[in-house]
Amino acid sequence: LTVLGKAHEFFQICDLEGKGFITHQDMQRLHPELPLSLEELEKVFVTLDADGNGSLTPKEFTTGFSEFGKHVSCIELYSYSIYSPQGETACPLKCEETVSDDEDEEFQFSNLMDRLGAKKVLDDESDVKQLWLQLRKDEPHLLSNFEEFLVRIFSQLQEADNEKNELECALKKKIAAYDEEIQHLYEEMEQQIKKEKEQFLLKDTERFHSYSQELECKLLSKEQELEQLVQKQKRLEQQCTELLSGKEETKAENTKLKLTNQELLRDLERTSHELSLAQQQLQVLQEEASRLHEEKEMEVYRVTETLQREKSGLL
Protein backbone atom coordinates (compact mmCIF):
# COMPACT_ATOMS: atom_id res chain seq x y z
CA LEU A 1 0.00 0.00 0.00
CA THR A 2 2.87 2.34 0.74
CA VAL A 3 4.37 1.67 -2.71
CA LEU A 4 0.99 2.23 -4.39
CA GLY A 5 0.52 5.46 -2.47
CA LYS A 6 3.99 6.62 -3.44
CA ALA A 7 3.36 5.63 -7.07
CA HIS A 8 0.14 7.67 -7.11
CA GLU A 9 1.99 10.60 -5.52
CA PHE A 10 4.80 10.32 -8.08
CA PHE A 11 2.25 10.27 -10.92
CA GLN A 12 0.69 13.50 -9.65
CA ILE A 13 4.14 15.11 -9.43
CA CYS A 14 4.81 14.14 -13.06
CA ASP A 15 1.35 15.08 -14.39
CA LEU A 16 1.22 18.69 -13.20
CA GLU A 17 -0.95 19.72 -16.18
CA GLY A 18 -3.62 17.06 -15.42
CA LYS A 19 -3.33 15.41 -18.85
CA GLY A 20 -4.15 11.95 -17.50
CA PHE A 21 -0.89 10.49 -18.80
CA ILE A 22 2.85 11.23 -18.51
CA THR A 23 5.70 11.26 -21.06
CA HIS A 24 9.49 10.93 -20.93
CA GLN A 25 9.90 14.62 -20.08
CA ASP A 26 7.26 14.42 -17.34
CA MET A 27 9.11 11.45 -15.81
CA GLN A 28 12.23 13.60 -15.35
CA ARG A 29 10.40 15.71 -12.77
CA LEU A 30 11.01 12.89 -10.28
CA HIS A 31 14.76 13.52 -10.45
CA PRO A 32 14.79 15.89 -7.42
CA GLU A 33 12.40 13.57 -5.52
CA LEU A 34 14.20 10.22 -5.93
CA PRO A 35 17.86 9.23 -5.52
CA LEU A 36 17.90 8.19 -9.19
CA SER A 37 19.74 9.71 -12.15
CA LEU A 38 18.06 10.81 -15.36
CA GLU A 39 19.32 7.66 -17.12
CA GLU A 40 17.85 5.45 -14.40
CA LEU A 41 14.53 7.31 -14.62
CA GLU A 42 14.56 6.72 -18.38
CA LYS A 43 15.10 3.00 -17.77
CA VAL A 44 12.21 2.98 -15.29
CA PHE A 45 9.96 4.67 -17.90
CA VAL A 46 10.91 2.13 -20.58
CA THR A 47 10.23 -0.72 -18.14
CA LEU A 48 6.83 0.67 -17.18
CA ASP A 49 5.85 1.43 -20.80
CA ALA A 50 4.86 -2.15 -21.67
CA ASP A 51 2.93 -1.27 -24.87
CA GLY A 52 5.71 1.08 -26.04
CA ASN A 53 3.44 3.98 -27.02
CA GLY A 54 5.64 6.58 -25.28
CA SER A 55 3.13 7.49 -22.54
CA LEU A 56 1.94 6.03 -19.22
CA THR A 57 -1.62 6.04 -17.86
CA PRO A 58 -2.23 6.15 -14.08
CA LYS A 59 -3.06 2.42 -14.09
CA GLU A 60 0.07 1.49 -16.06
CA PHE A 61 2.24 3.72 -13.90
CA THR A 62 0.84 2.54 -10.56
CA THR A 63 0.76 -1.18 -11.41
CA GLY A 64 4.07 -1.24 -13.24
CA PHE A 65 5.86 0.94 -10.70
CA SER A 66 4.70 -1.21 -7.79
CA GLU A 67 5.90 -4.37 -9.56
CA PHE A 68 9.12 -2.64 -10.57
CA GLY A 69 9.71 -1.39 -7.04
CA LYS A 70 9.43 -4.88 -5.59
CA HIS A 71 12.50 -6.29 -7.33
CA VAL A 72 14.47 -3.32 -8.63
CA SER A 73 14.15 -0.13 -6.61
CA CYS A 74 12.67 -1.16 -3.28
CA ILE A 75 15.69 0.24 -1.46
CA GLU A 76 15.44 3.63 -3.19
CA LEU A 77 11.66 3.81 -2.65
CA TYR A 78 12.04 2.75 0.96
CA SER A 79 14.75 5.30 1.55
CA TYR A 80 12.52 7.94 -0.04
CA SER A 81 9.56 6.94 2.16
CA ILE A 82 11.84 7.15 5.21
CA TYR A 83 13.35 10.59 4.44
CA SER A 84 10.17 12.24 3.06
CA PRO A 85 7.90 14.21 5.41
CA GLN A 86 5.10 11.69 4.88
CA GLY A 87 7.45 8.88 5.81
CA GLU A 88 8.19 10.68 9.00
CA THR A 89 4.47 10.94 9.81
CA ALA A 90 3.57 7.43 8.63
CA CYS A 91 6.56 5.66 10.18
CA PRO A 92 7.52 7.38 13.40
CA LEU A 93 10.93 6.53 14.76
CA LYS A 94 11.29 4.31 17.73
CA CYS A 95 12.51 5.52 21.04
CA GLU A 96 16.13 6.52 21.35
CA GLU A 97 18.68 3.70 21.71
CA THR A 98 21.10 3.59 24.58
CA VAL A 99 24.89 3.79 24.22
CA SER A 100 25.22 0.04 24.64
CA ASP A 101 22.70 -0.59 21.84
CA ASP A 102 24.67 1.70 19.52
CA GLU A 103 27.84 -0.19 20.30
CA ASP A 104 26.07 -3.51 19.69
CA GLU A 105 24.80 -2.27 16.30
CA GLU A 106 28.23 -1.02 15.44
CA PHE A 107 29.72 -4.40 16.35
CA GLN A 108 27.10 -6.33 14.36
CA PHE A 109 27.52 -4.11 11.30
CA SER A 110 31.30 -4.43 11.52
CA ASN A 111 30.99 -8.23 11.72
CA LEU A 112 28.63 -8.18 8.73
CA MET A 113 31.05 -6.10 6.68
CA ASP A 114 33.95 -8.36 7.70
CA ARG A 115 31.96 -11.44 6.75
CA LEU A 116 31.05 -9.94 3.40
CA GLY A 117 34.60 -8.66 2.77
CA ALA A 118 33.27 -5.16 2.11
CA LYS A 119 36.49 -3.44 3.16
CA LYS A 120 38.19 -4.90 0.11
CA VAL A 121 35.49 -3.50 -2.17
CA LEU A 122 34.09 -0.33 -0.58
CA ASP A 123 36.08 2.73 0.34
CA ASP A 124 33.18 4.37 2.21
CA GLU A 125 30.62 2.26 4.14
CA SER A 126 28.63 5.18 5.51
CA ASP A 127 25.73 4.93 3.03
CA VAL A 128 25.31 1.17 3.50
CA LYS A 129 25.62 1.55 7.27
CA GLN A 130 23.01 4.31 7.38
CA LEU A 131 20.53 2.24 5.36
CA TRP A 132 21.23 -0.88 7.45
CA LEU A 133 20.67 1.01 10.71
CA GLN A 134 17.46 2.56 9.39
CA LEU A 135 16.12 -0.85 8.33
CA ARG A 136 17.13 -2.32 11.69
CA LYS A 137 15.16 0.38 13.51
CA ASP A 138 12.07 0.78 11.32
CA GLU A 139 11.70 -2.36 9.22
CA PRO A 140 13.53 -5.25 10.93
CA HIS A 141 11.64 -7.83 8.83
CA LEU A 142 13.36 -6.41 5.73
CA LEU A 143 16.81 -6.54 7.27
CA SER A 144 17.41 -10.18 6.33
CA ASN A 145 16.41 -9.46 2.72
CA PHE A 146 18.72 -6.50 2.67
CA GLU A 147 21.61 -8.58 4.08
CA GLU A 148 20.95 -11.31 1.49
CA PHE A 149 20.98 -8.59 -1.15
CA LEU A 150 24.31 -7.33 0.20
CA VAL A 151 25.69 -10.89 0.21
CA ARG A 152 24.81 -11.31 -3.45
CA ILE A 153 26.16 -7.88 -4.34
CA PHE A 154 29.45 -8.29 -2.49
CA SER A 155 29.92 -11.85 -3.77
CA GLN A 156 29.53 -10.54 -7.30
CA LEU A 157 31.89 -7.68 -6.51
CA GLN A 158 34.38 -10.13 -5.02
CA GLU A 159 34.14 -12.32 -8.11
CA ALA A 160 34.65 -9.25 -10.27
CA ASP A 161 37.65 -8.27 -8.12
CA ASN A 162 39.10 -11.78 -8.46
CA GLU A 163 38.57 -11.66 -12.20
CA LYS A 164 40.24 -8.27 -12.24
CA ASN A 165 43.23 -9.65 -10.31
CA GLU A 166 43.45 -12.61 -12.69
CA LEU A 167 43.28 -10.28 -15.65
CA GLU A 168 45.98 -8.10 -14.09
CA CYS A 169 48.23 -11.14 -13.57
CA ALA A 170 47.62 -12.30 -17.12
CA LEU A 171 48.27 -8.79 -18.34
CA LYS A 172 51.51 -8.61 -16.36
CA LYS A 173 52.60 -11.95 -17.84
CA LYS A 174 51.75 -10.73 -21.31
CA ILE A 175 53.62 -7.49 -20.65
CA ALA A 176 56.66 -9.45 -19.43
CA ALA A 177 56.55 -11.71 -22.48
CA TYR A 178 56.07 -8.69 -24.68
CA ASP A 179 59.05 -6.92 -23.04
CA GLU A 180 61.18 -10.04 -23.52
CA GLU A 181 60.16 -10.26 -27.15
CA ILE A 182 60.84 -6.55 -27.61
CA GLN A 183 64.30 -7.00 -26.01
CA HIS A 184 65.01 -9.93 -28.33
CA LEU A 185 63.88 -7.93 -31.33
CA TYR A 186 65.94 -4.99 -30.13
CA GLU A 187 69.09 -7.15 -29.89
CA GLU A 188 68.42 -8.61 -33.34
CA MET A 189 67.91 -5.11 -34.66
CA GLU A 190 71.19 -3.95 -33.14
CA GLN A 191 73.02 -6.88 -34.78
CA GLN A 192 71.35 -6.12 -38.08
CA ILE A 193 72.21 -2.42 -37.79
CA LYS A 194 75.82 -3.28 -36.94
CA LYS A 195 76.08 -5.63 -39.91
CA GLU A 196 74.49 -3.13 -42.27
CA LYS A 197 76.76 -0.41 -40.89
CA GLU A 198 79.84 -2.51 -41.65
CA GLN A 199 78.55 -3.23 -45.15
CA PHE A 200 77.78 0.42 -45.60
CA LEU A 201 81.29 1.42 -44.46
CA LEU A 202 82.83 -1.08 -46.89
CA LYS A 203 80.67 0.19 -49.73
CA ASP A 204 81.38 3.72 -48.66
CA THR A 205 85.17 3.10 -48.79
CA GLU A 206 84.92 1.61 -52.27
CA ARG A 207 82.69 4.43 -53.35
CA PHE A 208 85.15 6.93 -51.85
CA HIS A 209 88.04 5.48 -53.88
CA SER A 210 86.02 5.51 -57.07
CA TYR A 211 84.86 9.01 -56.30
CA SER A 212 88.48 10.12 -55.67
CA GLN A 213 89.58 8.76 -59.04
CA GLU A 214 86.65 10.45 -60.68
CA LEU A 215 87.56 13.72 -58.99
CA GLU A 216 91.18 13.39 -60.17
CA CYS A 217 90.00 12.89 -63.74
CA LYS A 218 87.72 15.90 -63.41
CA LEU A 219 90.60 17.93 -61.94
CA LEU A 220 92.86 17.10 -64.92
CA SER A 221 90.11 18.04 -67.33
CA LYS A 222 89.54 21.29 -65.43
CA GLU A 223 93.25 22.08 -65.55
CA GLN A 224 93.25 21.55 -69.33
CA GLU A 225 90.21 23.78 -69.63
CA LEU A 226 91.98 26.39 -67.49
CA GLU A 227 95.04 26.29 -69.77
CA GLN A 228 92.80 26.74 -72.79
CA LEU A 229 91.07 29.65 -71.07
CA VAL A 230 94.44 31.27 -70.30
CA GLN A 231 95.48 31.00 -73.94
CA LYS A 232 92.12 32.34 -75.03
CA GLN A 233 92.53 35.24 -72.61
CA LYS A 234 95.91 36.06 -74.13
CA ARG A 235 94.43 36.09 -77.60
CA LEU A 236 91.62 38.33 -76.38
CA GLU A 237 94.13 40.72 -74.81
CA GLN A 238 96.03 40.87 -78.09
CA GLN A 239 92.82 41.57 -79.96
CA CYS A 240 91.98 44.28 -77.41
CA THR A 241 95.38 45.89 -78.02
CA GLU A 242 94.82 45.79 -81.77
CA LEU A 243 91.36 47.24 -81.30
CA LEU A 244 92.78 50.04 -79.16
CA SER A 245 95.31 50.92 -81.85
CA GLY A 246 92.57 50.75 -84.47
CA LYS A 247 90.49 52.94 -82.24
CA GLU A 248 93.18 55.67 -82.31
CA GLU A 249 93.25 55.52 -86.07
CA THR A 250 89.49 55.60 -86.20
CA LYS A 251 89.49 58.58 -83.87
CA ALA A 252 91.86 60.48 -86.20
CA GLU A 253 89.76 59.60 -89.23
CA ASN A 254 86.65 60.71 -87.33
CA THR A 255 88.35 64.07 -86.66
CA LYS A 256 89.13 64.49 -90.36
CA LEU A 257 85.60 63.48 -91.25
CA LYS A 258 84.26 65.96 -88.75
CA LEU A 259 86.31 68.79 -90.32
CA THR A 260 85.19 67.71 -93.78
CA ASN A 261 81.63 67.61 -92.60
CA GLN A 262 81.93 71.14 -91.22
CA GLU A 263 83.29 72.37 -94.58
CA LEU A 264 80.49 70.61 -96.38
CA LEU A 265 78.00 72.26 -94.01
CA ARG A 266 79.45 75.68 -94.80
CA ASP A 267 79.32 74.92 -98.56
CA LEU A 268 75.74 73.72 -98.10
CA GLU A 269 74.78 76.92 -96.31
CA ARG A 270 76.41 79.03 -99.01
CA THR A 271 74.77 76.98 -101.75
CA SER A 272 71.44 77.27 -99.96
CA HIS A 273 71.84 81.02 -99.77
CA GLU A 274 72.70 81.22 -103.46
CA LEU A 275 69.79 78.92 -104.26
CA SER A 276 67.49 81.16 -102.27
CA LEU A 277 68.71 84.20 -104.20
CA ALA A 278 68.29 82.33 -107.47
CA GLN A 279 64.75 81.35 -106.47
CA GLN A 280 63.95 84.98 -105.72
CA GLN A 281 65.35 86.04 -109.08
CA LEU A 282 63.46 83.23 -110.76
CA GLN A 283 60.26 84.36 -109.05
CA VAL A 284 60.90 87.93 -110.31
CA LEU A 285 61.56 86.63 -113.79
CA GLN A 286 58.44 84.49 -113.65
CA GLU A 287 56.39 87.51 -112.59
CA GLU A 288 57.96 89.58 -115.38
CA ALA A 289 57.30 86.80 -117.90
CA SER A 290 53.72 86.55 -116.71
CA ARG A 291 53.25 90.28 -117.07
CA LEU A 292 54.77 90.24 -120.55
CA HIS A 293 52.56 87.30 -121.49
CA GLU A 294 49.50 89.21 -120.37
CA GLU A 295 50.55 92.30 -122.30
CA LYS A 296 51.20 90.17 -125.38
CA GLU A 297 47.78 88.61 -125.08
CA MET A 298 46.22 92.04 -124.73
CA GLU A 299 48.13 93.21 -127.80
CA VAL A 300 47.00 90.15 -129.76
CA TYR A 301 43.44 90.78 -128.62
CA ARG A 302 43.60 94.44 -129.79
CA VAL A 303 45.10 93.40 -133.10
CA THR A 304 42.51 90.71 -133.54
CA GLU A 305 39.73 93.19 -132.72
CA THR A 306 41.16 95.71 -135.24
CA LEU A 307 41.33 93.05 -137.89
CA GLN A 308 37.81 92.04 -137.14
CA ARG A 309 36.56 95.64 -137.54
CA GLU A 310 38.48 96.03 -140.79
CA LYS A 311 37.03 92.73 -142.02
CA SER A 312 33.58 93.95 -141.14
CA GLY A 313 34.23 97.22 -142.90
CA LEU A 314 35.39 95.43 -146.02
CA LEU A 315 32.36 93.23 -145.99
Which features would summarize this protein structure in a list?
metal-binding; 83% helix; 9 helices; coiled coil; EF_hand_dom; 315 residues; elongated; single chain
The helicity comes to over 70%
Q: What overall form do the CA principal axes indicate?
A: elongated
Derived structural class: mainly alpha
Relative strand content: under 5%
Radius of gyration: 66 Å
* Mean pLDDT rating: 77
Q: Which spans have pLDDT < 50 for at least 5 consecutive residues? A: 70-99
Main sheet attributes: strand count, strand direction, barrel closure: none
The number of helices is 9
Number of strands: 0
Series of H and E elements: HHHHHHHHH
The CA-CA distance between the termini, in Å, is 176 Å
Coiled coil: 150-295
Pfam families: EF-hand_7 (PF13499)
Domain EF-hand: 36-71
GO molecular function: calcium ion binding
How is this structure best described in words?
It is a single chain. With 315 residues, the protein is an all-alpha fold. Among the domains are: 3-76, Recoverin, domain 1; 108-183, no CATH class. Helix content is 83%, strand content 0%. It has nine helices and no strands. It has helices at 2-14, 24-27, 38-48, 58-71, 74-83, 85-90, 99-116, 126-138, 143-314. The longest helix has 172 residues, at 143-314. The relative contact order is 0.03. Mean pLDDT is 77; it is low at 70-99.
Short account of what is shown:
With 315 residues, the protein is mostly helical.
What's the helix and strand layout?
Elements lengths: L1 H13 L9 H4 L10 H11 L9 H14 L2 H10 L1 H6 L8 H18 L9 H13 L4 H172 L1
Helix pairs in contact: 1-4
